[in-house]
Specification:
This protein has 241 residues and is of the alpha/beta class. It is built from seven helices and nine strands; from the N terminus they run βαββββαβαβαβαβαα. α4 crosses α5. The chain is globular.
């Protein structure tokens, strides 16, 4: 399939990634992407995160580099059961999009019911656009209630390619993603493919995710990465260039 964008990528600013922004954009061009989004980690509580000042000087970054439209994002952390995250609204408002994810160093896992409700509360925030890697068995979730809430709140659920690769530290990801994809088909919930690249060679790589899409017969119309309209579901009326 021909994908237009990859919005879940990390640069050296995240501390545990290995490529620069410029290297990632070049990789996006080579992968045939029209849009590239960088989404480094937020929050002083994240052991690898840059200070929030990283997210306040994006104005110096050209909107088009190497013929690729550049989108400015962040991957923020769920920090409690009330749906709060570790980035200020003032800073979030300056981004093109924001991914919200559960990470073990900022969130204490609970039951599937509590974890799911925590994400549902978070997605009511207007700046949360994508729920990142909701597939990690260490943070159990209820697939169908989550998929239904994602659709109702107008956000997208991520199918994270990194979660499916050999050696991932996340647990039970293949089975959890299959359950989530089937729930999304039942609810008519749109998904967003993300590479979660931590090195330029993985930008725009969705090979493992495609295997699950084929296995489930997931419909193209529910994959945001395939259309301009899908991108608009994420960034709204913000300019993508």
């Amino acid at each position: 399939m021909k994908y237009l964008f990859d919005l879940h990528t990390h640069t050296i600013a995240s501390g545990h990634a290995y490529s620069t922004l410029q290297e990632n954009i070049a990789a996006a061009r080579d992968a045939g992407l029209k849009y590239y989004g960088f989404s480094d980690h937020t929050g002083s509580d994240h052991q690898d995160a840059f200070r929030n000042s990283w997210f306040t000087n994006f104005k110096v970054i050209p909107r088009e580099i190497y013929g690729v439209h550049v989108l400015r994002g962040a991957e923020t952390n769920l920090i409690d059961y009330e749906g709060h995250y570790d980035l200020s609204h003032k800073t979030a408002a300056k981004l093109d999009y924001m991914i919200l994810s559960i990470h073990g160093n900022t969130y204490e896992t609970s039951t599937a019911e509590v974890n799911t409700e925590s994400l549902i509360k978070a997605m009511k925030d207007p700046y949360v656009r994508i729920i990142g890697h909701p597939d990690d068995g260490r943070f159990p979730l209820l697939a169908e209630p989550l998929a239904a809430a994602v659709r109702e709140n107008g956000v997208l659920l991520e199918l994270n390619n990194s979660s499916l690769r050999e050696g991932t530290h996340r647990t039970n990801t293949r089975e959890n993603n299959l359950e989530l994809l089937r729930a999304c088909m039942k609810c008519g919930t749109m998904i967003c493919l993300g590479s979660d690249a931590h090195i330029s060679f993985d930008v725009g790589r969705f090979r493992e995710a495609e295997t699950l899409l084929e296995e489930t017969g997931f419909p193209d119309e529910l994959i945001a990465n395939l259309t301009e309209e899908g991108l608009s579901r994420i960034i709204g009326d913000k300019k993508a260039y």
